[in-house]
Amino acid sequence: MQNQRWRSALAWMTLVVGALCSSCQLAPVAQEPPPCTANIPLRLADAPGPHGHPLASSPWKIAVGEKPEGLAYVDEEMLLAQGETDSMGRIALLKHESDRISALACEGLTPVWFVYPGYTGQISGVRRSKYLSDNEDLLHRLMLEGYFYELPAYSVSLFNSPSVTEVLYMARQDYGVESNEALLKKLRELQP
User: What residue range is the signal peptide (predicted)?
Assistant: First the structure.
C-alpha cells in the first residue's frame, strides 16, 4: 500500500512538472563515449599493405612507460605482452592482454610502446565511432595496415598534403582499387 502511494505521488509530480515546463527544453542526455581500441599492429611485414613480405618469427614486445631504446631494453616490470609473429607475420594477443593494452592506450596517461627489432612506436587509442568521418576512418585503418607509423593531427587539408596523397595512391594501387571510397570499403571488409 505504501509503495503504491509513493508511485502515485511520483507520477503526479512528474505530470505537474511536465505541465509546468511544457515549453522548457530538456537537457540533452549524456551519451557514452564511443568505444576505444588500441591501434596495435595486426601483422609485421617488410612493406605496408597486402603485398608486404611477412616478417615471420619476429620477436615483439608491448610495454608501458618510458620509450624503450630497443627490444633488449624493455623493462620487464613495464612489459604488457610479448611474443613472436607466426609464419604470416601476425601478432597474437590474448583477450585480457588486448583489453589491458587498449584501456591504457585509450586512457592516454602513460605511453604504450610496440617494439620489434629496429622499431619502437607508440600505440594510441582509436575511438571507433559512427561519428568518425570516412577520411578519419580510412587513415586509422591505413595505420593498422602499416602505411603510417603515427597519424598526424587530422584536418580536412591533410588529404591534400603530398605525403598523405602519396600514401593513398600507393594503398589504392596495392589493393587494386581506384578511389578512396573503394579503398575504405576494402579495408572495412578486412578489419571489421
Answer: 1-27
Distance of CA 161 to the CA centre of its chain: 23
Pick 42 or 113 by higher pLDDT. 113
Is residue 97 within 8 Å of residue 114, measured between CB atoms? no
Residue type, 41: P
CA 180 – CA 184 distance, rounded (Å): 6
Which H helix or E strand runs over 64? Answer: strand 59-64
Q: What is the mean pLDDT of residues 68-79?
A: 92
pTM (2 d.p.): 0.63
Pairing verdict, β 119-123 and 59-64: unpaired
In eight-state DSSP terms, residue 21 is T
For the chain, the farthest-separated pair of C-alpha atoms sits apart, in whole angstroms, at: 74
Structural domain spans, the chain: 32-129, 132-192
Confirm if 44 and 24 have CB atoms less than 8 A apart: no
